[in-house]
Amino acid sequence: MRRWHLPVLVAILTVTAVSLIVYKVRALGYPMTPAEEIQSWIIEARLSFEATGGAAKAELAIPLDPPGYSILDENFVSRGYGLQTERRSNNRVAIWSTRRPSGRQTLYYRATVTPHESKSLEQAVPALAAPPLYDELHSAAVNAILDEVRSKSADIATFSSLLMQMLARPTPDENAQLLLPRQASREDRVRTAIYVLAGAHIPARMARGLRLVDGARSAQVEAWIEVNNGQRWIPIDPDTGAHGYPPDFVMWWRGDTPLFSVERGRDAEVRFSVTRTMEEALETATRQAQLSESAVASYSLLALPVHTQNVYRSLLLIPVGALLIVFLRNVVGVQTFGTFMPVLIALAFRQTDLVAGVLLFSVLVTLGLAVRFYLEHLKLLLVPRLAAVVIIVILLMAFVSILSQRLRFEVGLSVALFPMVILAMTIERMSIVWEEHGPADAIKQGVGSLIVAAGCYLIMFDLRVEHFIFVFPESLLLVLALALLLGRYTGYRVTELLRFRALSEAIKR
Amino acid sequence: MKWLASPRHLRELGVLGMNARNALYIGPNNRRRYYPRVDDKLLTKQLAIDAGIAVPELYGVVETQHGARRIDRILDGRSDFVIKPARGSGGDGITVITGRIGGSYRKASGVPLDLDDLSHHISNILSGMYSLGGQPDRAMIEYRVHAHAVFGSISYHGVPDVRVIVYRGYPVLAMLRLPTRLSDGKANLHQGAIGVGIDIGGGRTTHGVWREMPVTVHPDTMYAIADVQVPDWETVLQLSARAYELTGLGYLGVDIVIDSNLGPLILELNARPGLSIQIANRVGLRSRLEVVDRDGDRKAPAEARIAFSKARFGGSRASDTPSTEPA
Questions:
Q1: What is the 3-state secondary structure (H, E, C) of A98-157?
Q2: Running along chain B, 327 residues long, what does each successive block of 10 average in pLDDT?
Q3: CA of A436, closest CA in chain B: separation in Å?
């Protein structure tokens, strides 16, 4: 039983971890490597106007939940303006306001969107209770059109398509001509169609958006019509009567409201520009997994708030560092100050960068040792002396930060992130080793710790490792299994092969 | 010489590695609750005295910082003593005073220390500077052992001691530890002392190891270190074997000093003895531990165990050149 206990435990851990990882990769599409990217688009709306004096206020419709796309990120650039966003029926509006603008004002809204399956159009709307009150002339025309279309259609979708096609003819019949303005645009035809469809109790609404063309500097807003068939909204192309938005269409706002409005400003205009970028596949996989309501995804770290995620990004790597320490100590046989001190130093290196980190660490420990040797002359008690070393380490850190600020050596500022108590303990232990076993041993162990810390840093914060552990935290079960296995390792350490080589040679001779 | 020994060859020689020592021998044989018996040297001393085993006389114990400042009262005019932490490890924190020069004390290495230095050192010991895990500690002041004349030519200041590895009560491997200038009069190998293998059967030294390399002469005195007879070897073996009953620890390092007047005395015990003893003896420890596991009677009295060890492990000599080839 005792003999099998550990192998069985290790096997269970391994199987659990591997099956979870395989499920997440195969079924949920989590990317294995950080480099996997998918296409996404950045759409920028630039609203500019000439201020006419007094407090100005500008409103711009911004996308809420465009069908077929999801908004990964958005930001507003508007120096000197107060900004708020507001839900208005089916839309979202950004409202900028400022007290005393002068000259040409420019406000930016930027959204990053990526193609994504969504169900935002699944919304049942009951048929309209009463048709609008048409005047006599319109009433006759509407009824004539409705009669003609009804005779050729099967359901609300085809009915609406036929209507749109009829209105879009280059030479509309006289009934249509009566309802349409001269030189009718897409927008006018949509407006007329909604008016006519209301006569047949069919709910319809206008939707406007953009076509995504890479590098477009002034993309045109395109009007579409959405018709509700009692189950869902069906988008219809006003030109062709085709159903459904094309893949490159991003819906911007709905209803017959203007895109923007400006108070106390003139010559207002909005320009859209579109660029294509690549986004991390992880971002999309997360959203998709969350929408699929998989239990694995809803209990994922990716569901946490971003700043908490960032904490775990580092925390989850500590086991990897700890495993490395186990390996280096029990299989290789490297000596370090403090068992897991190098892991904590490696965490600090993450903020400082490796070279700067090693440099700062060496400087701090050297200065600290010098002070510690001076303190030895004062013959202090152990705990007060340790406290004194901690205080001096912190002062040294502050001094290094200030000095590097003066010298414009920016990485020096990150010295504040070193774990100072660990540093103080390292200095104390190093000084004891120095006194008891000589400088050679102390420096050897100090350099050993530093090399181990650098190794931990390189492995823990390798992009692929970091990504893999964070996306698949269950892989820590594998780390645990390995640590348990190493716990029963009774073979020689590499340093012992070196240590016993004299013995080996002596007996061989 | 090759850079690394081959693990296979080491396994054939029965060399014990650190991992195997910890997992296969210390773990199963040393019960944790018996550790204080060896980690606390005051407790060891008390147990030994109760069992009638010879140890160096204890002059006094300092337990408080207040006591550290009044060290002169405990010293009571003595000028020949040793200060050591009760829970020290690896020989750290041991100060040997061999006499006085005017107002100051004289360390074994000749460095003078005044009373202030001594009480600061004791205060460091009390704060746990040398103890495992930094716990508060006590300082012991005890009789300074006087090295037996036999070792006069092969040690540099300080007192040599004999380290015996005792497995389940059977002495399996022994080594003489000679202080050097490098080790500052201390007899710990990792501090720079020389280890010399000892034949379990007769108590004669065999080969030397210094800083993990073979040596034949003491580097400070240049006298040969091989083929020296350890005085009173029978008593040394008896003290080591009885340390098993004393502590209940199955895997034990026993440090014995041979005083010129009092003969062998147990200086301290160690529940995690080092592995360099194998290099000094040119013998794999594991092979001997396996012999005890296979043939050793668990309930044998100390005398029978010593006889077993002498018969099975004795007989190695300095001139021996053990060979892996069949004779």
A1: ECCCCCEEEEEEEEEEEECCCCCCCCCCCCCCCCCCCCHHHHHHHHHHHHHHHHHCCCHH
A2: 81 91 92 90 92 92 89 85 86 84 82 88 88 83 90 85 95 93 79 91 90 86 90 94 93 94 92 89 92 90 94 75 38
A3: 7
Residue A67 to residue A487: CA distance in whole angstroms: 54
Q: What is the mean pLDDT of residues A97-115?
A: 85
Q: Are residues B90 and B171 in the same domain?
A: no
Q: What is the CATH number of the domain that holds B80?
A: 3.30.1490
Tens digit of each residue's pLDDT (9 = 90 or more) over B108-132: 777 888 888 888 899 889 988 888 6
The answer to whether the Cβ–Cβ distance between A505 and B278 falls below 8 Å is no
Inter-residue contact A93 to A58 (CB < 8 Å) = no
B247-297 per-position pLDDT tens digit:
999 999 999 999 999 999 999 899 989 898 998 898 999 999 999 999 988
What is the tally of structural domains in chain B? 2
A chain contacts of residue B120, beta-carbon cutoff 8 Å:
379
Nearest to A501 among B4, B23, B276 (CB): B4
Helix %, strand %, coil % of chain A (to 5): 50, 20, 30
**Which has the minimum average pLDDT: A404-413, A434-443, B177-186?**
A404-413
Q: Which domain holds residue B65?
A: 58-143
Name the minimum distance, in Å, from the CA of A4 to any CA of chain B: 17
Which amino acid appears at position B22 of this protein? N
Q: Is the ipTM of this complex over 0.90?
A: no
pLDDT tens string A160-193? 888 888 888 887 788 888 888 878 888 888 888 8
Report yes or no: B286 and B23 within 8 Å, Cβ to Cβ: no
Which residues 86-105 of B have a C-beta within 8 angstroms of A? 92-93
Q: Cβ contact (<8 Å) for B17 and A493?
A: yes
Give A502's contacts in chain B (Cβ within 8 Å).
Answer: 1, 209, 212-214, 279
Give the distance from residue A346's alpha carbon to the nearest chain B alpha carbon, in angstroms. Answer: 24
CB B288, CB B173: distance < 8 Å: yes
CB pairs under 8 A between A and B: 103
Q: How confident is the model at residue A120 (pLDDT cuts 50, 70, 90)?
A: low
Q: Which residues of A touch B134 (CB under 8 A)?
A: 382
Q: Which pair of structure tokens corresponds to residue B193?
A: 């002392």
Question: Are residues B223 and B308 located together in one domain of the fold?
Answer: yes
* A350-382 burial code (b ≥16 CB/10 A, e <16): bbbeeebbbebbeebbebbbebbeebeeeebbb
Instruction: Decide if A496 and B213 are in contact by the 8 Å CB cutoff.
Output: no
Interface of B with A in 64-83 (CB under 8 A): 65
- Hey, what are A334's tokens? 């490297």
Domain contains B323: no
- Asked if residue B2 belongs to a domain, the reply is no
Q: Inspect the interface and report whether the beta carbons of A503 and B282 lie closer than 8 Å.
A: yes
Shortest CA distance from B188: residue in chain A: A437
Domain ranges of chain A: 310-473
- Residues in a beta bridge with A274: A43
A219: left (phi over 0), alpha (psi -120 to 50) or beta: beta
Residues 283-322 of B with CB under 8 A from A: 321-322
**Residue B193's closest chain A neighbor by CA?**
A437
Question: Do residue B175 and residue B62 come from a single domain?
Answer: no
